[in-house]
Amino acid sequence: MAEQHSGPGRIEDYALLSDLRTAALVGLDGSVDWLCLPRFDSPSCFARLLGDDGAGRWLLAPTGTVTSVKRRYRDTTLVLETEFETVDGVVRVIDAMPPHTDGAADEPRLVRVVEGVSGNVEMRLRWVVRFAYGDSTPWVRRVNKEHILAVAGPHAVVLRGDRLPYRVHGERAHEAVFTVDEGQQLAWSMEFTRNPDAPAAAVDASDEIARTERFWHDWQARITYDGPHQDAVRRSLATLKALTYAPTGGIVAAPTTSLPESLGGERNWDYRYCWLRDATLTLLAFDGFGCTTEALAWRSWLLRAVAGDPADLQIMYAIDGERHLLEWEVDWLPGYHGALPVRVGNAAFQQLQLDVYGEVMDALHLARERGVEESAESWALQRGLLRHLEEIWQQPDKGLWEVRGPDRFFTHSRVMIWVAFDRAVRAVEEDGLPGPVQRWRELRDAVHAEVLAKGWNADVGAFTQYYGGRELDAATLLIPAVGFLPGDDPRVVSTIAAVEKSLKHGDLVDRYTTVVGESHVDGLSGQEGSFLACSFWFADALALSGRRSEAVAMFERLAALANDVGLLAEEYDGDAGRFTGNFPQAFSHLALVNSAAILFGDTAGRHERSRR
Ligand SMILES: OC[C@H]1O[C@H](O[C@H]2O[C@H](CO)[C@@H](O)[C@H](O)[C@H]2O)[C@H](O)[C@@H](O)[C@@H]1O
């Protein structure tokens, strides 16, 4: 009984399911501890991840002692198999969320099947539904022999299955205990419904699992990568696809909120939104591996989201393009192992982060280079963005790390402003698109000179985090990757050495220093884990500076940090040997695939072409 009421597992204990509209996290203990319905950014119906049993969960696991658990996705798909070994035998739980396909009028559904592999194993199904991030206990009733309905206000789910649970005396929970014999198969499905009085008809769980498997196999067949580390690259690409909201093409940074960047700390953020930075980099990753459809879908999303006045550009939007992501604290949830606050919404939507202009221009430029035809609307949008950038580029900003401290002239932001004007010039020179190329050339050259004069600090021997400062920032490792300077430029080589000395611990690289009393640049207390994307960027910078074999070895060690099913969180706490931050995170996975492209693909040419 104690286990039933305990808190969530380690972050690395979770596996991801997604139907391309929302996602679930399933623990090694067989418990679905996170699910928001019907969208990634909807309120949760299972939130044990940020609390305990009372915040909602769906457990399906042996009642007795489990002697070992093995887990895997079927091939490169998102059909998850968890095998529990007990003294009485072995059972396999199969979990899947059938993907939404274009135009289908289906609703999100989670399918769970248990198969008896050997012996006779007693299982417990415990179903605790709490809507509104654990705040709303539904009215649960057995409508007929086939289904149970849980309803509270606007939220409703239907549970169907071979062994429906009963209300546990004295608890707001439902349970079924039953034995699964060798060769036996039992199935359940839980579906979101907008019409509790007439929910959609029952489905066949095996068919739904087969459909899910087929979808992911077909999707993987489009990936063109045939280099080394296929498993890691394909799992990362599938994870990025799984974070895509199919109805609009928007991409969430992660499916979770408030998994802490430092265990027990306050650096807890809601990532269930579409950042232009993260989404743009994801687009590049997709496009580099043959997923042009996703690239086009994202470009349409961008055109819709940014439509209107370029001065209104935000750095992030909701997955449907909604602009207001007001941040609030869920004060009734205890947080992941006590890490408070739990936040919903993200105040960063109002920040000025100038790097975003460079990322958008770079992504659309590379898409053109790879044969994605430019559209009139898309080029008009880019010209509008550049017009606005011409007016604001001399302002300080919050930088790519979205600091909550004062605005500064962050070196990385300034480099990315250069990227924006550089790609504009090249659109005219190389692709024949119309525009005021001479003005853009002058701006490009002015920013370049400014960064070399103010971002480079000869005393420190590095490009610093912001003009006039002495602190370092791993984002400066991107300088060769975007073509601002060649990888073998002495200032780049020296910056790599400085980052190595101050921000790198083993293979793990911090974003910047968070030592209290030093910089306070981010305006937050406490420290954080090392940022996995920065760790991959370090490997990229090594490769681009000519140290390829070291880079490959580092890439391999970093890729090995993924959990048993190939997933990466935002950060890694090297001391605790644990994942921290939201999970799985697009930034980390796209850094992995971009590194693979640099190390094992033909993308190196991109950097050559980008040099001035
Ligand atoms: O750590 C402080 C900031 O953390 C979040 O931002 C980070 O995640 C974003 C999404 O992956 C990424 O685009 C950004 O570069 C990261 O710093 C959070 O969203 C911010 O509100 C917070 O200030």
Automatic annotation (TrEMBL):
GO molecular function, one term: hydrolase activity
Record key words, sorted: Hydrolase
Positions of the GH15-like domain: 227-595
InterPro entries: 6-hairpin_glycosidase_sf, 6hp_glycosidase-like_sf, GH15-like, Trehalase-like_N
Superkingdom per UniProt: Bacteria
Domain named Trehalase-like N-terminal: residues: 10-179
UniProt xrefs under Gene3D superfamilies: 1.50.10.10
Protein name, as recorded: Glycoside hydrolase family 15 protein
